[in-house]
């Protein structure tokens, strides 16, 4: 069951009717520094209302991303190598809290605009803003006595709730993974499932069957998990005996992607052996790629290579998702939609600022008939907020978030609808 902290903080014997009759307001905000999944500090916020306490933690991305909005960090090299967030915590406790106390937590847009008005700069302190905004959203859902995903759907103007198709990473590559794969992530989409629960079963079983095959053929080094990575135009950059002069042009990369999408070549060339059979590539004699073509590619080119990204998107072979190309930025997204540079948005909530900003960016993409993928960050927390966000306007990642989606599906019961084969436009 999905439950809110409502009953934990009401011990005065009021009836449910009396509780609903009391107008809720933000009464206290307390922020602190915690650690994310990489052991790097991030911001956690406790927001108190008449209904109880609601906690949220901001995820963090890579610290050197070019187009992402900035996280406020102390810069004191003697503490967490300069990554401490005590300044952001102090801003919340001293400035943001004072501005928000007394406000109605259901008025998400007003709360978020108040937070943003406190920082007029283009590069906002995302970690402070987002943690407060997420906590307010949870408080607003509790005030309305609805599921968080339902509250977000209301804020988004969505009439129905769709369980997203999980994009499950089964193999990691790129510069941080302990293998020779250049591609950052290889994911599967269980679109043939009838429910989200069945989709997770498919993903889990596929993952462990694949792991067993890799362990048998390549040992434990082939099963290391990558934190993040790049995909430039040198697909051999991780080979220990590479010459350093084997590069692909943008056109050659596009041709390779086209072959992947039509199932004519194996995506793991150089790592897994394949046999050529009448133009059909087969993996370990188990299945043929033509039966499982690539349906979505994320950041197929450099973050500034608009030309080749558009040219490949124009082929109409698969979903082309913009991650670093867009950085969830409304201006870059507007350009991409106008130029038809890609047709999918990777939405990372800490790139935009607040819940309201995330909803607006998702709506902007959907108005352009794009797909939207809700993504975790490399520095994640236990907070499962993005699972609820994915149900309202979009699609998600990581185990805590998957588990929350399983709870949501259980809570919705017969009303639960899994996107499945309509994953591009649920």
Keywords:
426 residues; alpha/beta; Enolase-like, domain 1; four-stranded parallel sheet; three-stranded antiparallel sheet; 12 helices; 12 strands; disordered N terminus
Fold topology:
Elements: H1 16-21, E1 26-35, E2 41-49, E3 52-57, H2 86-100, H3 108-117, H4 126-144, H5 148-156, E4 168-172, E5 185-188, H6 196-218, H7 250-261, E6 274-277, E7 280-283, E8 287-288, E9 296-298, H8 306-313, E10 319-322, H9 330-339, E11 344-347, H10 355-367, E12 371-374, H11 385-391, H12 399-412
Parallel strand pairs: 9-10, 10-11, 11-12
Antiparallel strand pairs: 1-2, 2-3, 4-5, 6-7, 7-8
Structure description:
This protein is an alpha/beta fold. It has two domains: 26-145, Enolase-like, domain 1, CATH 3.30.390; 162-235 and 248-418, Enolase-like C-terminal domain (TIM Barrel), CATH 3.20.20. The chain contains twelve helices and twelve strands. The protein has helices spanning 16-21, 86-100, 108-117, 126-144, 148-156, 196-218, 250-261, 306-313, 330-339, 355-367, 385-391, 399-412, and strands at 26-35, 41-49, 52-57, 168-172, 185-188, 274-277, 280-283, 287-288, 296-298, 319-322, 344-347, 371-374. The strands form four sheets. Strands 9-10-11-12 form a four-stranded parallel sheet. Strands 1-2-3 form a three-stranded antiparallel sheet, covered by helices on one side. The longest helix is centred in the middle third of the chain and has 23 residues, at 196-218. 42% of the residues are buried. The model is unreliable at 1-19, 225-230 and 267-288 (pLDDT under 50).
């Amino acid at each position: 069951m999905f439950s809110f902290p409502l009953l934990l903080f009401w011990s005065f014997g009021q009836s449910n009717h009396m509780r609903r009759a009391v107008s809720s307001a933000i009464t206290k905000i307390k922020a602190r520094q915690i650690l994310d999944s990489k052991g790097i500090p991030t911001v956690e916020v406790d927001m108190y209302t008449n209904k109880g306490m609601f906690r949220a933690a901001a995820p963090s991305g890579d610290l050197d991303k070019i187009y992402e909005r900035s996280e406020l960090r102390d810069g004191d090299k003697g503490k967490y190598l300069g990554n401490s967030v005590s300044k952001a915590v102090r801003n919340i406790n001293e400035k943001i809290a004072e501005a928000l106390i007394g406000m109605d937590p259901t008025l998400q847009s007003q709360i978020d605009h108040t937070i943003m008005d406190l920082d007029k700069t283009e590069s906002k302190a995302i970690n402070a803003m987002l943690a407060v905004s997420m906590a307010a959203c949870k408080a607003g859902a509790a005030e309305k006595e609805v599921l968080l995903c339902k509250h977000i759907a209301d804020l988004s103007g969505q009439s129905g709730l769709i369980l997203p198709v999980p994009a499950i990473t089964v193999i990691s590559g790129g510069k941080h993974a302990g293998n020779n794969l250049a591609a950052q992530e290889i994911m599967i989409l269980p679109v043939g499932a009838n429910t989200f629960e069945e989709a997770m079963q498919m993903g889990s079983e596929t993952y462990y069957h694949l792991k067993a095959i890799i362990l048998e053929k390549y040992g434990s080094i082939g099963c290391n998990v990558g934190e993040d990575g790049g995909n430039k135009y040198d697909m051999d950059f991780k080979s220990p005996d590479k010459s350093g002069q084997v590069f692909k042009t943008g056109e050659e990369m596009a041709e390779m992607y086209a072959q992947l999408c039509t199932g004519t070549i194996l995506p793991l060339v150089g790592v897994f052996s394949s046999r050529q059979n009448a133009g059909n590539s087969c993996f370990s004699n188990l299945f043929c790629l033509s039966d499982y073509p690539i349906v979505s590619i994320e950041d197929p080119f450099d973050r500034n290579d608009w030309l080749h990204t558009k040219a490949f998107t124009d082929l109409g072979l698969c979903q082309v998702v913009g991650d670093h190309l867009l950085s969830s930025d409304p201006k870059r997204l507007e350009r991409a939609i106008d130029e038809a540079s890609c047709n999918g948005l990777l939405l990372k909530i800490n790139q935009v600022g607040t819940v309201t900003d995330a909803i607006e960016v998702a709506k902007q993409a959907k108005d352009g008939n794009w797909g939207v993928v809700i993504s975790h960050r490399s520095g994640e927390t236990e907070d499962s907020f993005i699972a609820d966000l994915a149900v309202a306007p979009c699609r998600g990642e990581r185990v805590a978030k998957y588990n929350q989606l399983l709870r949501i599906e259980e809570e919705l019961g017969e009303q639960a609808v899994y996107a499945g084969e309509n994953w591009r436009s649920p």
